[in-house]
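Exam prep: given the inputs below (a chain plus norvaline), describe the expected output before reading on.
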Amino acid sequence: MRHLITLDDVSTDEIQRIFALTQDIKAKFAEGVREPLLPGRVMALLFEKQSLRTRVSFEAGIAHMGGSSMMLGEDAGFGKRERIDDFTKVLCQFVDVIVMRCKSHETVEQVAQHATCSIINGLTDVAHPCQALADLFTLKENLPSLDDAKLAWVGDANNVARSLAVACGKLGVHFAIASPAGYEFAPEFLDSLKQQCPAMQMTITTDPHEAVTNASAVYTDVWASMGQEQEQEKRKQDFADYQVNGHLMASAPKTALFMHCLPARRGQEVTDEVLDSPNSIVVEQAGNRMHAQKGVLAWLLGTQGS
Ligand code: CP
Ligand code: NVA
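Solution:
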């Protein structure tokens, strides 16, 4: 049984296979063709945090593919009415895939341990693999090639940054990250990354200008993620020098794209000037969430997977 909990779960070849499926599905969708690749397949969604892009793109995506979905609400009693192993073993008899957005990464791991259907991580405090797959697919569409590409992350070394770093490592993209002291990647994460992607090109700095130099794309995310609301004010001060604005973008090549997973806090981590600039591909990125997740679903559940 295959799951997508972090990008450690997929090889470079498997990511390329997912991208090939994504490209084909997206091109056909643009022509008005919605191939029923997953007839009768059922998706359950378990979300402990808010979502627009992830939830709606998964639900619309599986519907386009001839399957269906159901959002499990409070009444299902996840984590409250019964033990997680009992809950999981029962639910997996009814559905083919469970997409989960959880406060704690361990919860998703715990469900995966007992699951007899595929589990997809739709964001935890640790990782956001579907986001990173869609983002690298978007980058691939927007650049002549991913070879020699450099993605510069400015801000918190958070869930999205971790997944992007792994995706870049596996696809041969130089990953640069500028974070303030105290908000960098943990050494254990860097060790695991090095082990998986020994040839990876990586720049780690506290200087955003250094990170964006020669970047093909500059990426940022909110300074306080969901669940860190109480740290908002402190983070505003700690990240004050990490705003992606016209001044910072002037240190990047003129062609550098701007990326953000959204939702954005305009005026904090990014200015309107950058977010709404012609180089910004944030809306396209969000649109590709659906296409890339269809690629993931076809790979995990379809007959075209391998
Ligand atoms: N980027 C992203 O995952 O958006 P949502 O939180 O709206 O799903
Ligand atoms: N880092 C953000 C991403 C939201 C899509 C969060 O976890 O809230």
